C-alpha cells in the first residue's frame, strides 16, 4: 500500500513508520514552534514612517498578498492533500503545517495592526490588482477540482490532479512566489530597516522551507509509487505550469516595485524568481530553464532546501522550543 488512499480506518497506527522523512519533518516543525508577539514589531515603527512612499507600497503590497494566500494554502491542504494521504506521519505533519499557516496569517495581521497600513486597501488588493488576482485565480483553479468534487485517487486522472494541486501550492505558491516576496521583505533589513519585521519573516521562511521539503518529498514519493504518472506528456505539463507561474510572478513584481527602491527593482527580483524556478525544476528532476545566477546571495541559505540544516544552525532566530532541545 502506498502513501495515497482514502480509507478512514487506514493510517490509524503511527508505528512502524513507513515514511521517515515525514516524521522527521514533523519533529522539526514542532521544535520550530513560535508566536508572532515574541517579536517587538513596534520597534520598527520609526523605520516605517521614514520610508518612501514606494517602500511603504512594497510592504503593503506584500502583506496584501501573503495574508489571504496563507489561508488559501490551508484550503489546499485540507481539501486537496489531507483527505487523499493515508500515512499517519504525513497527517501529523499536515496538521502542524495547517497550524503554521494560521500562525503566519496572524503574523501578517500583527503587521497590519502595528504599522499605519490601510487595512481595506491591503485586503482589497488581491481582488483589485490584476496581476495579484491572476496569481490567485491560477491557484484557485487547481483547488476548485477538490472542493467541488471528490477525486478518485485510484485512477491515473485522479492522481494527476493530486500532483497538479501539490505543484500549484507547494512548488509554485510556497516554493517560488512566497520566496520572491520573502526576499523583498528581507531586503529592507539589508539596509538596516525593519529589522524586527525581518526576524518575523525569518521564522516564516523557516516554516515554509519545511512545507516546501514536505511537498517535494510527497510529490516524488507519489511519482515513485505510481509509474502510470511517469509520462513525458504529464512531465511537460508540470514543467509548463512552473514556467507560466514565472511569467505571472514577473508581472506581479512590476506592480510591486513600479519604480524601484534603493538596491532593488523588478528586474532584480525577477532574476531571483528565475533562479528559484530553476532550483525547483531541478528538484523535480528537470533541467534548469533559465540558467541565471542568484542575485540575492544573502538569501541562499533560506531558499535552497538542501541547505536547511545549515540555515537552522546559522540563523540567530533559529531557536528551538524546549520540548525538542531537552529531549
UniProtKB/TrEMBL annotation:
| Plastid recorded as keyword | no
Where Fe cation 2 binds, per the record, is at 174, 208, 211
Q: Which InterPro entries does this UniProt record tie to the protein?
A: Ferritin-like_SF, RNR-like, RNR_small, RNR_small_fam
This protein's cofactor list reads: Fe cation
A GO molecular function annotation here is: metal ion binding
Q: How is the cofactor bound?
A: Binds 2 iron ions per subunit.
Which BP terms does GO give this entry? deoxyribonucleotide biosynthetic process
Catalytic activity, reaction form: a 2'-deoxyribonucleoside 5'-diphosphate + [thioredoxin]-disulfide + H2O = a ribonucleoside 5'-diphosphate + [thioredoxin]-dithiol
Q: Which residues cross the membrane?
A: 166-188
Top-level taxon: Bacteria
Q: Which Gene3D superfamilies match?
A: Ribonucleotide Reductase, subunit A (1.10.620.20)
Oligomeric and partner information: Tetramer of two alpha and two beta subunits.
Q: What does this protein do?
A: Provides the precursors necessary for DNA synthesis. Catalyzes the biosynthesis of deoxyribonucleotides from the corresponding ribonucleotides.
Family listed:
Belongs to the ribonucleoside diphosphate reductase small chain family.
This protein is called what? Ribonucleoside-diphosphate reductase subunit beta
Origin organism is: Gryllotalpicola protaetiae
